[in-house]
Amino acid sequence: MNWLPVLLFWLSCAFLLYVIAGYPLLLKVISGLSRKPIRKGEFLPSVSVVIPVRNGEQYVRRKLDSILDLDYPKELLEVLVISDGSTDETDDLVRSYSAWGVRLLHVPHGGKPAALNAGVPTTRNAILLLTDIRQVLEPGSLRRMMSCFADPAVGVVSGELIIRRGDNLQESNIGLYWKFESWIRNRLSDLDSMMGATGPFYAIRRELMVQMPAETLLDDLYVPLAAFFRGYRLVVEPSAKAYDDPTSLSTEFRRKVRTLAGNYQIMQQYPGLLTFRNRMWIHYVSYKLGRLLLPFSLVAIAITSFWLPRPWMVLSVLAAEVIVYGLAILDDRISETSPLKRLSSVSRTFVVMMLAALCALSVFFVPPQKLWTPTKTRPSNAN
To answer: pLDDT tens across 57-103, in order?
Structure first.
């Protein structure tokens, strides 16, 4: 029965190639052939800007300044900062903006979903703009997002998150990875809907906002998917930009563990994602579920390669694994100026992302809130 491991080897290879390269190519073709335009128009609804934060004193001023600089009628805006049990100077800094109409709500520390559950009902406007404390918004971003709500089929609009250029290859690779993610989300939006929202910067019709279980890891999936299953579109407005600082690979690893664990959680919260109730079923399976299963395909390839019928085939697979994993391990010791660094840095980023997908299984064994860690960024000098 040696054909079974050989078959599993080739199926695992095919799956790996499909998720990494085949599906993006398929998505490019399909989105080009079946584009579903958004019927944009001049639309200026009242907007409540909601900013949950915990101990974000280093970001408060630049965030609120960017909100106050928005090219949007001030009489149509309210700004609420929900302080999730902050113990630093966050609350005092927010209060210093009260003359400009910024309101502070301090709640006991319970996590972002609990903060939003408490704060959103105190707002009054037709559209909710949910945004995190770190990202700086472009002045015209809100007006551009609102134009998408002129289409009654649109329930959620995400902005385009731009990661500033990093100072080393690690940060640059993470930036490139995010650009690739953004490209996929934009193509899904062209087709119908992305499978969630861009968490640091998205808007939703007030009547579509839902309360979340306190242990929810991905509010930017839980809330938009409730609108999606009511038949609304979840779209991206690429011209509505927000900017964030680069992160280190270790920080991105912890963030990725949480987001991938959140994807396991969201499948339990929305089992319809895995059925034909999900009108984007093939894309969800190929994109979200496929990413979760990638590391298991790599493990299967490594084990079943020993059953390949030709010694040179076994040696070729082992050599490829040694090169990829060896470069990842040695990356820290390779100089930034070395030509080899470009390969080792990519290998390390890939391996770290695969390890994060494996570690995401911890969501089944530890309380979900244990997976929340602060995202640390390094201010970038890039514009």
So the answer is: 999 999 999 999 999 999 999 999 999 999 999 999 999 999 999 99
Rounded (5°) CA angle 302-306-308: 110
Q: What is the dihedral of CA 64, 116, 124, 205, to 10 degrees?
A: 100
Q: And the tokens for 24? A: 């993006």
Q: For residue 21, give both structure tokens.
A: 């390269």
Are both 322 and 232 inside the same structural domain?
no
Burial class (CB in 10 A: 0-12, 13-18, 19+), 11: middle
C-alpha closest to that of 81 among 103, 97, 61? 103
In three-state secondary structure terms, 142 is helix
Q: Which two tokens stand for residue 340?
A: 């080899």
- State how beta strands 47-53 and 127-131 pair: parallel
Q: Is residue 266 assigned to a domain? A: no
Task: Give the residues across from 136 on adjacent strands.
Answer: 243
Long-range pairs for 6-13: beta carbons < 8 A, 24 or more residues apart: 6/304, 6/307, 6/308, 6/309, 8/300, 8/304, 9/300, 9/301, 9/304, 9/305, 9/307, 9/308, 12/297, 12/298, 12/300, 12/301, 12/304, 13/297, 13/301
Integer Cα distance of 1 and 307 in angstroms: 10
The residue range of the domain holding 346 is 1-35+276-374
Structural domain count of the chain: 2
Whole-structure pTM value? 0.90
Contact at 8 Å (CB) between 296 and 16? Answer: no
